[in-house]
Structures are given as structure tokens and as C-alpha cells.
Amino acid sequence: MNKYNIKTTKAFEEELLDIYSYIVDYLQEPKIANEKYKKIRNKILSLQYLPERYSRIFKSKFKNRNLRKLLINNFVIIYEVRNDTYQIFILHIFNKYQNYLNKL
User: Fold this and answer.
1) Predicted confidence band at 71 (pLDDT cuts at 50, 70, 90)?
2) C-alpha–C-alpha distance, residues 43 and 3, integer Å
3) What is the pLDDT of residues 15-55, one digit of tens each?
4) What is the DSSP letter of 61?
5) Of the options 3.40.50.970, 1.10.3470.10, 3.30.2310.20, 2.60.20.10, the CATH number for the domain spanning 5-103
6) Model-wide pTM > 0.90
7) Are 76 and 70 in contact (CB under 8 A)?
8) What does the domain layout of the chain look like in residue ranges?
9) What is the Cα–Cα distance from 98 to 53, expressed in whole angstroms?
10) What is the phi/psi pair of residue 67, to 5°?
């Protein structure tokens, strides 16, 4: 079993920070923010092995890309698996109620 290298995009990091800040500043729940942050990071790290275990995104404009979605509570993480180089690119994190496919 090959181990994949995980890379996050700037967009993902900014989106994750926005979520964290919202929970801390608006909801005033720093403990919950920390728990969610850790859970998200741990789920991402788990992708190192068997990254294709989550659903593929089948949309015509992405037919040549191995895009997948990972659901964590109210969030959807969009990532790309590149099997030829054993890399995973974490692209975005969205609220699951958003029309996230149109934002890609």
C-alpha cells in the first residue's frame, strides 16, 4: 500500500481559517472550534492511505480529474487524487448545504 503526500491549497487554508474564526468569534465557542479543527485535520491525514475510499465527483467539467469529496459533520472537503505521483491536493472546504459544485 502506497502512502500519499498531502498538500493543501491556499484557498482551503483560508476557508478553514474562516470557519475556525466564525466559531470562535461569532459563536464564541473556542473549544468547539479547536475540536472541529483537529477533527478536520485528522480526517485529512487519514487520506494518506486509501484516498479513493470517498465518493468521486462526476461532473463533465471534471471528467479528467480524480476529484473526491470527504464529508465531516456539516462540511465537505474537496480534494484531488493524483495516483501517478501519489499526491493529494486538498482544494476546498464548504458547508454541506452550499451549492459547492457550482463554486468549483
Assistant:
1) very high
2) 15
3) 999 999 999 999 999 999 999 999 999 999 999 999 999 99
4) G
5) 3.30.2310.20
6) yes
7) yes
8) 5-103
9) 23
10) -85, 140
